[in-house]
Specification:
Elements (H helix, E strand, L loop, with lengths): L1 E2 L2 E2 L15 H9 L1 E6 L10 E6 L1 H14 L2 E9 L18 E6 L3 E5 L9 H7 L1 H5 L4 E8 L13 E6 L1 H5 L14 E2 L1 H12 L4 E8 L6 H11 L6 H4 L19 E2 L1
Parallel strand pairs: 4-7, 4-8, 8-11
Antiparallel strand pairs: 1-2, 3-5, 5-6, 6-7, 9-11, 10-12
Helix pairs in contact: 3-6
Length: 261
């Protein structure tokens, strides 16, 4: 899937083609799909803002937001085993964390993407939330990467946030709340896939990448994300009084997931 600013690659990490002990594992992964399980019958039809959190630090911030605002859990997205392996109980098909979608006040949805969603499944995951994306007036994606993955001639001290708005966001003159991400940086997985979907379907969207000194959230990383979201008027009232306490953080553990600039 491609756009003017990049593409998502669904590829294997293997450097060669041919027989390998990893073939079975790879084939099993390629067969898997997702399904969305609705907890409520009242499905969102008019979404003012769809927030999607990807990565350990971002999901940690999202967890703190949930504790403050007590949103309604409306759906879970779970991975489905291939038909020929549904009865297996081997470690090949370990139980994976679901991704969860919550409804906040004011027509706002919040999706926390499970770290178990692999890069090769990014487009499949996006296809399961496409109806919600199409019902959204605006999409904000927040993902986190360690700062050693940031490429620039200018040294920046992490944590810091970069932005990648799509063309619809720009045409509608929506505010961009962070400096723009420069080439040749890479964004991967679900964040890239959803961002490109919004570009193709002309949904206003902006991707924010929080570059961090480490994978776990701390007070400095929390503060950077907090400063970003306080600028989003539709959720300002929900985040303005958020505080960071490490004991309150409950979130997924991140796995790396490609959007090439």
């Amino acid at each position: 899937m491609a756009s003017y600013f990049g593409e998502v690659l669904e590829t294997s990490s293997r450097a060669y083609d041919g027989d390998s002990d990893d073939d079975t594992e790879l084939n099993d992964a390629l067969k898997r799909d997702y399904e969305i399980s609705w907890i409520t019958g009242d499905r969102p039809q008019d979404v003012q803002l769809f927030l999607i959190a990807v990565g350990k630090c971002c999901c940690a911030y999202s967890a703190l937001l949930r504790q403050k605002s007590s949103p309604e859990l409306i759906a879970k997205i779970v991975q489905v085993r291939p038909e020929d392996a549904k009865e297996e109980t081997t470690s090949r098909f370990r139980k994976e964390e679901p991704s969860c979608i919550y409804r906040l006040k004011g027509g706002i949805l919040l999706c926390e993407v499970s770290p178990d969603v692999q890069v090769i499944h990014a487009n499949r995951f996006t296809s399961k939330i496409h109806e919600l994306l199409l019902a959204s007036k605006e999409v904000i994606l927040l993902t986190s990467l360690t700062s050693n993955r940031y490429a620039s001639w200018k040294a920046l001290s992490p944590p810091f946030i970069k932005a990648l708005p799509n063309s619809t966001h720009t045409i509608r003159k929506k505010e961009v709340l962070a400096p723009l991400l420069e080439a040749p940086n890479i964004v991967t997985g679900v964040a890239a896939s959803v961002h490109i979907f919004c570009e193709i379907k002309k949904i206003s969207g902006c991707l924010y990448i929080c570059y961090t000194p480490k994978e776990d959230i701390d007070s400095a990383i929390f503060s950077s994300i907090q400063k970003l979201f306080i600028q989003v008027q539709s959720i300002k009232s929900s985040v303005v009084n958020l505080t960071y306490e490490s004991k309150d953080v409950e979130c997924f553990t991140q796995r790396a997931g490609n959007l090439y600039l």
